[in-house]
């Protein structure tokens, strides 16, 4: 069997994806600490965390939550594979959504009230960002005439989708659990909701959720970079700018309520994205 | 130092404390001491934690909760007891509601005695706990820590010692 360039891309994305995601996460913790006037943990701290969690005792409440946490990871990897192969973006979005749904179902399968509240909030988050992601795909279709992820490499999308880009950054803040949207499970305030949706996961199962989150970070910034896919330098610059913007927003905003998030996401960003789509459709 | 001692996550349980220890402990997270630079995170969930930090003497209602919090932590785990109350009951020892010290309920690995301990002493206690955590992960069975000795006032021997040293110094001069 010979390795085609496409297979190589897929293998690289699946192997390097979580490593890059973990480094971005470590950088985030470092920069956040410096913004707050602290020294902060080393950049490779997320690796230490995951390695430690993998070696802890595997405590689970029931078997169902363990199946779902594996599905959470598997569908996230499937999303990475689909995007790296340049396959259908709607299919990738479906796999991505099911990954979140698996986490919700896993958290719903236990009796902890905090886990339930976290799941409810995760559902609200999905309500809030899904329309934006769909509109992003519709926008790409209107420009390139194709739903294939490989079609984004033809031209810089940012020129024609500036408002959709802005709204995608807002959706990314929800996906990455950044303030003001970090309501389902927060990296900063562990005492609120007691980590919400991940409360009943311990040791290696929590490590699986962390690894999935690293994949998620990778996907989000890969999508941000693909808004200027014709030049990797500009794409990476966009991703870096988006990353810094998210950190600043994370540090200056307080955590807000789920209903506020839903109201906000369905008014301002949705209007912005829709007006961009209407403009594309009419032009 | 392996990954487990570079990423100690702490859950903090206040049994019956006057909040002195708790305030000093939370001060460790501030930019002044910034324990996150050692990878130490203050988590609210025993299922995510490696180190249980206990403050205060245990009262009758706490016993079950403290046992429960300890039992929910995945192995390997260590317990750090902050303040004199955790080792003796402290100033509350004779109160009607007090069950006793923490070691009556769960095994304690490190005591940090003082009322309250300084944040530096707390960080030192947690660093000691990291060594124990590492050895527990390697499969060693660690004995519980010896309780710090309670001295209400300096003993005659302790008072005599500096005087003797002073006399010797004067003799040399």
> Helix segment count of chain B?
6
Largest sheet of chain B: 5 strands, parallel
Q: Secondary-structure element order of chain B, as H and E?
A: HEHEEEHEHEEHH
Beta-strand share of residues of chain A: under 5%
Shape by Cα distribution of chain A? globular
State the separation between the terminal residues of chain B, measured CA to CA: 49 Å
Helix content of chain A: 55-70%
Poorly predicted spans of chain A: none
Describe the structure.
The complex is a heterodimer of chains A (283) and B (173). With 283 residues, chain A is mainly alpha-helical. Chain A has helices spanning 5-35, 45-54, 63-84, 89-108, 113-144, 162-175, 204-225, 232-252, 258-265, 268-282. With 173 residues, chain B is of the alpha/beta class. Chain B has a single domain (3-172), classed as Rossmann fold (3-Layer(aba) Sandwich). In chain B, 36% of the residues lie in helices and 15% in strands. Chain B contains 6 helices and 7 strands. Chain B has helices at residues 3-6, 20-27, 62-72, 85-88, 119-137, 156-172; strands at 9-14, 41-42, 51-55, 58-59, 78-82, 98-100, 110-112. Chain B has a 5-stranded parallel β-sheet with strand order 2-1-3-5-7, sandwiched between helices. In chain B, strands 4-6 form a two-stranded antiparallel sheet. The longest helix of chain B is centred in the C-terminal third of the chain and has 19 residues, at 119-137. Chain B starts with a helix and ends with a helix.
